[in-house]
Specification:
The complex is a heterodimer of chains A (200) and B (390).
Chain A lengths: L11 E5 L3 H13 L4 E5 L5 H8 L3 E5 L5 H5 L12 E3 L6 H10 L1 E6 L4 H49 L3 H15 L3 H15 L1
Parallel strand pairs in A: 1-2, 1-3
Antiparallel strand pairs in A: 3-5, 4-5
Helix pairs in contact in A: 1-5, 4-5, 5-6, 5-7, 6-7
Chain B lengths: L6 E5 L6 H8 L2 H4 L4 E5 L3 H9 L5 E5 H9 L8 E10 L1 E5 L1 H10 L7 H17 L6 E4 L5 H12 L9 E4 L2 H9 L5 E5 L2 H7 L4 E5 L8 E8 H6 L1 H19 L4 H8 L9 H9 L1 E3 L6 E3 L4 E2 L10 H13 L7 H10 L2 H8 L27 H6 L7
Parallel strand pairs in B: 1-2, 1-3, 6-7, 6-8
Antiparallel strand pairs in B: 3-10, 4-10, 4-13, 5-8, 5-9, 11-12
Classes of the chains: A alpha/beta (200), B alpha/beta (390).
Amino acid sequence: MSTTPGIDLSLKIVIVDESPVRSAILEEGLREAGFTEVIRIAEMQNLLARIYQIDPDVILIDLENPSRDVLEQMFQVSRIVKRPIAMFVDQSDTASIQASVDAGVASYIVDGLKKERIKYILDTCISRFNAFAKLQEELDRTRNALEERKVIDRAKGILMSAKKLTEDQAYALLRSTAMKENKKIAEIAQSVITAAEMFK
Amino acid sequence: MTGGKRLRIGFIPLADATALMIAVDKGFTAQEGLDVELVREVSWSNVRDKLNIGLFDAAHLLAPVAIASSLGLGHVKVPIIAAFGLGLNGNAITVSPALHAAMKDAAEGDLTDPMVSARALARVVMARRARGEEPLTFGMTFPYSTHNYHLRFWMAAGGVDPDQDVRLIVLPPPYMVESLANNHVDAFCVGAPWNSVAVDLGIGHILHFVSEIFQRAAEKVLAVRARWAEDNPDVFRKLVHAHGRAADFVENPDNRDEVASLLSAPDRIAVAPEVICRTLDGRLKVSPDGSYRASDRYLLIGRNGAARPDPVQAAWLYAQMVRWGQALMSAEALAEAKATFRPDLYDEILGPQQDLPPSEPADRVGAFTGPAFDPDNIAAHLDGWKIRRR
């Protein structure tokens, strides 16, 4: 476990995220960094009430989560919240706002926390968020490749029965057409499938 | 194109982003030589922050958020200007079937009259309290939202204190309908298409168009950082010019089907074109039994001087912030709020304009009750309201 001097590791951190995988990755990162009080919220109903109940020092939320606007209400109803709340690291610190927005994470922090403490939490989250985004990207790429494979296989089948070709010949035909038209094989395969459906 | 620099403009998928979407999708921005990428967002906080820190060059923004940003309320102070209004009105108040029935029973008169409905709400609120029931919950979209102020203005007129007698909560528009269906809220105020979606699902009644509460209520603006407009005067001018053409295009009924079909695209509003047509026509199904209500003021985009930003509207929004304790009254803040709306730039870019047509209210707001709005004496105007924060 790595710790940084000057960081209060007993800070209560809430992660608001509907993606269980990502919030688990974030929680793990924060725990590895030494934070012990990390609470995840995945259910968006009555979000504000839950947050008031937990009474966190820091709230982290995914920028893709529409409930970010719900949190804005915390700045309005100071008579309900016990303490005033400030947003992001510091109102003047646009660099870290930009960094967190770029990474897709927004943070809301309780007023009075030292800037460097929050920066440490935010940095941990940003690197975890980026790691998750990379993972997601790889997953999407694999999934796309798999889809393309399926489309090409179907198109090959259509060509084999319609033109009495072998599998290799069908594939060669798809490939040469793709090269001629400057398109991807999967796109040509998709047009073969579409055309075949129209001729049904 | 624009010297290779692509403009990024943020928006929330709502019918009042129509002029912006048409400006881009119908090619008006391209004809001005602008290369624009529209970025669909999920929250007003995101739109505001990305505009403020420069990730967006411009944005479809709630008019009061633009003013709050200029004043530094609730967030970082970043001066914003709006030289083009994306719409007046367009919101509606939808209530659950149970609340609708209760209000109907309590109403002394026609529930489509906002004063009758506001007083009926007051009676329902009192009856619930007498029975020891939970207060009613109303959903709105953002603390600095027109929806928040519209709901408050209406219910306070009937004697309901929005902070004491009911709960007002922020709900993202995509969650409104579901929250009404599972009784998480009893009513909400939101823009199109969400009211229609609730009615179509049979779980809500449209109680009022906001145009029944105010004849003119500034809703969304094309917002840019004041600094950005100064640094990019030519691009800014072209952007506003394209919007002027788009708004004219949208208001021509002959183009309605094309507009609705462009807006229904998956990366735009993503609802059936027919639902969008209802909004643009101002003819909405208001009840699950199939009854309709029509208004030629339901959503004003380019007609009746709707697109020209009106500092009186900015002053009215600031007055609501003061009334409900979000802002302190000060002459400087009022001046800053008004300076956020720039009819002078609108006229400079789109040509000199006539003043409002005679169809429009003399005080340029036209609330259904209370004294005429006086932007030069907000303190006295607010003293006329019994229910307010101090």
